[in-house]
Sequence to fold (637 residues):
Amino acid sequence: MKTNDNCCPPAEALDALQRLAPDAPLLALGQTIFWDEPMKLALLRHLAAHAPTRSILFGVHDTDYFARLHTRQLPRGAQVIDGFALLPHNDGSTRALWSAAGEIAQLFGSETVPTLQMFAHNGGHVARVAESCSEGRSAFIDALTEAWGWRGLVARDPAPRPVCEIPLHAVAPALDALLEFGLDGSCQMLEDADARARACAWASALRARVRQYADAHPNGSLADLFVALYPELLESLHGGALPDAVGFTRTTELLRFNTRTAGLPRFALVDAFVNPATRRACEDAYNAAVADSPIYTLDEFGEGALPFDLLIPQVGRGTLLLTERYLVVLTPEPQIVRLPAPIADVHGLAQVIEAQWGDACTLVGKAITLVPMLAREFVFVFNERGSPYLTRTARFLQGLQAGGVEARVHPLLRLRYPTWDTLSAARCVNLRLPEHLARAFGEPTLCSDVLALRWRAVIAEQRQQMEQLAQARRPRALMALLTERAGERWREARATYDASLHALAETIGRHADTLRQHAHALHAERRALIAEIQRNPKQFAALAPRLHALKTQIRRLNAERLQVGHTPEAEALRARVRQLECAAERARLEQIRDAYLTVEGLLQTHARPAAWWFLLLGRAWFEACAEGLQARLEPLA
Fold:
């Protein structure tokens, strides 16, 4: 995890923010309440002490798509509940999976995928091992590269839908299965019976609350559920009623677009893209920012494309295309409006949209334009490692400024949690560690206090192990390394490997060498006879029979030498050698996976823990995490 040297106590960051953006509310925006977004409540105590007039809004990003799989074929054995699939994420059959509002991770779990590229970088030969696996290549790669402790929901509906249009009654059974995986799976990690009983009771109550809300609101959406439960979850973390400084919203409210809202500063960026005087500079800045990335440039959407989507109630969400004659929305069934006159500003765009589809549409920025839209009025709060798009967003804003387009935005407020360092603040709980952590820590169960003290040292050890595995390029070196770590099993395997190689050298190798030396001697004799004939051609008749005999003998010896390695004994020895080499390579892959999941998994969850984990183990952990919070301002432009 990259460390930022300019992190400081929240008081210092809030004081600096007071000078830069004194009146801007804080905004915490996320797709689901079951991940790290509610953790930003840790800032509340610091706000009360150092910025009591500043409010913080917790928002549900309900205009984002629910999930995407990019394939209609589900992996074998996928759990499907009422049109929704509950899937793991791996670098095989679910490589293209993207689940936003329907994801969850068990305690210590995260969407940390051990990719094939990562294995190759660390010396792993996945293809070689996969080809020899009895379970089949695809199944082996899926299992090897699966993110531990994570599941995501995907709708089987071929047309992707935003969160605000996912019917709650339809997704509720699948959501309950998702919560069962995450909540109940985490509860079973608590070794102490009393702690496990308390955690299971809380988890059961949360699942019951979700079912109760779904039953009571048959026409509601998944976003409605999240907005309703958000205050309850934050109150549990806070330990009581929330102060007035805390508010709740959603992007269908923040980005509601009509003739009454078009003049808000959050839509100033839209105006710059629509205005003919600045449109070209905006398009150039956007295309340059997304170049060499999976994000589409504007021309890939079609003529007149803008980096904004319009969400039309009951119609769908789609990219806006604006030309002098037409306004097109690329919803599943494209919407086309012929314009009586060219649109020259954001107000004209709002008039056309409201006249055509009413005043309840939402205009939302694409990957790198959403944050600049809202950062004009709000100060975004991000956790460390939050949002991979921000680097390109900053590049886009720099491009706007270089093109002479005003790009005023507030800085971001980054939060860094002392997650695993403060685990000792909770009453000591014995934890049943996941297998990869159990092997890394050397114990199947561990007191939470000990984990808090040891986790950084264990990460350092696992990093060193990955370096050593990458450097063990030859089978014997790899087996020697495995012997150091796994003991007797690999000591015996290496002895068998050496004995097999020795047998090959002593039997097949020695025989082949004898045949080769004999053939070389015959070649030398034949060359000498040919030289004699060249010196004295009259000797040809006398020497020809011997030349022919030598040629026949050499051919026979070469043929015999080629067959030496194909005897049943040789094939058996070679098969044993290959089997041991493959077993060693498989063990290397398993150790790389364990080390990577330990290092990256602990660092990822340290930076972005699921907020509800703290309620399973006790609020004291959350209080300590809030007390040790660090923050920094990150300029966007």
The longest helix spans residues 488-535.
